[in-house]
């Protein structure tokens, strides 16, 4: 039987006020629930709930809630005075959402975050080490955002800055070098992380790796506990040592492709169940585009999942009865390699590992797409622009590009079936395979794309690389996916 710290019987139409300091001073360590008594039996009226508003940090960090300076200060000091490990989830959520908010809305003022920094510098409360790191991180990003605005670079992509199309990027380099010098005088996990980020931004990979590795040596390991910048674990120069050739089993062959492009997706059997229906509707609506599904899983589950998916597709065709012929999707699968530490990482990355195989199998160009994207418009206009290049990759804007694992996003990448794209894919594939044995490997595919971009011009100096983010993107990840993946 579960032991309760306190049980109180509250008569009908009355209330109970907590006066116990051991609870009031440690609210994050307690939960409560209400029960009612019927026929001498107690039954739950509520689930376990927190004794305070655990959304307040998120609301404050993201300018959803506006309170007076004094109230804001009191709220923060509650977290600083009564620090608890049970606060971690809400701190992590507020922190992550605030960073996403800055990346997506760099022109917004972010008033509460600036106020947060101001309060932290004018408090007599001892600030816990975790909060010192978070406050440093937020202030550093806000200051870099201001610098990019000042230099007129906010709306430039990393490709623009990297190609040196403006003299202002010289000023950016000077700013970054001055920040590295300053941060070397600070001994925080996140300041060390930022030294690595800055070195990476100006193309000094080896120095960046050294700083990232040093940030991982801090005992507290806030990078892991806050689940922030996990990509620092797979930002490496290790590109040899593991040889792996996937054993791909093709379920069927392409009969006809009217566009010369294969849209390639990779996933596990469960993800196929989540998203196959909306993808099949897209295939039927678009009619002429060839979609290839590559499934990665254990044992024979992939084979069974593909059979069920194909049956579902055929039933949809029978149900909808389209007026014109549809390009039939094709399927393949492979078993997870034994050396892979994180299965989720591999099924996200496997599309890049097998892309050349799919090109050779179908003699087509490739458009790699996230499986949870909803296609919300016709593809022809978008594809006609990005297919003008040997490859087209989505470069992030200047601020987000500080993070090499977010510098080039992996969700919508075009690769022409030619020798230059093949060389690029070789770099991506080799990087992925040689870092799959790491436990913290999420965003590995995006680290691999950044690495390949850094190296490809040494191999193919005349390669034509486009920016997939330059045009209106006819696909997106809907918020509904959070509910879909709970089914």
Would you kindly provide a written description of the structure presented here, covering whatever features stand out?
This is Glycosyl transferase family 8. The chain has three domains: 1-52, no CATH class; 57-233, no CATH class; 249-484, Spore Coat Polysaccharide Biosynthesis Protein SpsA, Chain A. 46% of the residues lie in helices and 11% in strands. It has helices spanning 21-24, 56-61, 69-81, 88-104, 111-120, 129-150, 158-162, 168-183, 189-201, 205-215, 222-225, 269-286, 301-320, 343-362, 380-386, 404-407, 419-433, 444-459, 481-484; strands at residues 31-32, 35-38, 41-44, 49-50, 249-250, 261-267, 290-297, 330-335, 365-369, 374-375, 391-393, 412-415, 465-467, 475-476. Helix 12 links the parallel strand 6 and strand 7 (290-297). The chain is globular, with a radius of gyration of 26 Å. The model has no long low-confidence stretch (mean pLDDT 91).
């Amino acid at each position: 039987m579960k032991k309760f710290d306190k049980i109180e019987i509250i008569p009908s139409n009355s209330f109970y006020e907590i006066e116990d300091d051991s609870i009031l001073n440690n609210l994050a360590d307690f939960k409560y629930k209400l029960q009612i008594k019927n026929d001498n039996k107690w039954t739950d009226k509520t689930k376990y709930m927190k004794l305070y508003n655990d959304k307040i940090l998120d609301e404050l960090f993201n300018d959803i809630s506006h309170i007076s300076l004094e109230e804001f200060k009191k709220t923060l000091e509650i977290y600083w005075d009564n620090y608890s490990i049970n606060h971690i989830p809400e701190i992590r959520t507020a922190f992550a959402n605030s960073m996403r908010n800055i990346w997506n809305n760099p022109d917004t003022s972010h008033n509460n975050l600036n106020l947060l920094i101001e309060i932290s510098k004018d408090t007599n409360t001892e600030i816990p080490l975790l909060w010192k790191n978070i406050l440093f991180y937020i202030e550093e990003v806000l200051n870099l955002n201001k610098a990019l605005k000042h230099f007129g670079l906010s709306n430039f992509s990393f490709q623009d800055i990297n190609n040196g199309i403006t003299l202002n990027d010289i000023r950016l380099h000077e700013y970054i070098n001055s920040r590295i010098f300053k941060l070397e005088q600070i001994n925080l996990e996140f300041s060390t992380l930022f030294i690595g980020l800055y070195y990476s931004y100006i193309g000094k990979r080896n120095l960046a790796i050294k700083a990232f590795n040093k940030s991982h040596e801090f005992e507290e390991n806030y990078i892991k506990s806050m689940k922030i910048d996990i990509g620092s674990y797979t930002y490496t120069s290790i590109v040899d040592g593991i040889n792996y050739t996937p054993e791909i089993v093709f379920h069927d062959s392409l009969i006809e492709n009217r566009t010369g492009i294969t849209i390639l997706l990779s996933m596990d059997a469960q993800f196929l169940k989540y998203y196959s229906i909306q993808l099949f509707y897209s295939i039927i609506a678009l009619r002429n585009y060839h979609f290839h599904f590559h499934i990665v899983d254990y044992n024979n589950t992939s084979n069974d999942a593909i059979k069920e998916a194909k049956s579902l597709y055929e039933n949809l065709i029978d149900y909808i009865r389209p007026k014109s012929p549809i390009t039939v999707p094709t399927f393949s699968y492979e078993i997870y390699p034994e050396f892979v530490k994180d299965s989720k990482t591999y099924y996200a990355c496997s599309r890049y590992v097998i892309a050349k195989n799919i090109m050779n199998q179908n003699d087509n160009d490739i458009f790699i797409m996230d499986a949870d994207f909803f296609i919300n418009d016709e593809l022809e206009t978008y594809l006609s622009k990005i297919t003008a290049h040997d490859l087209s990759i989505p470069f992030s804007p200047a601020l987000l590009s500080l993070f090499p694992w977010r510098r080039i996003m992996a969700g919508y990448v075009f690769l022409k079936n030619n020798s230059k794209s093949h060389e690029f894919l070789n770099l991506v594939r080799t990087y992925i395979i040689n870092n799959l044995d790491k436990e913290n490997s999420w965003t590995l595919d995006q680290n691999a794309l950044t690495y390949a971009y850094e190296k490809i011009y040494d191999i193919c100096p005349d390669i034509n690389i486009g920016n997939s983010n330059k045009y209106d993107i006819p696909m997106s990840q809907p918020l509904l996916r959070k509910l879909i993946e709970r089914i």
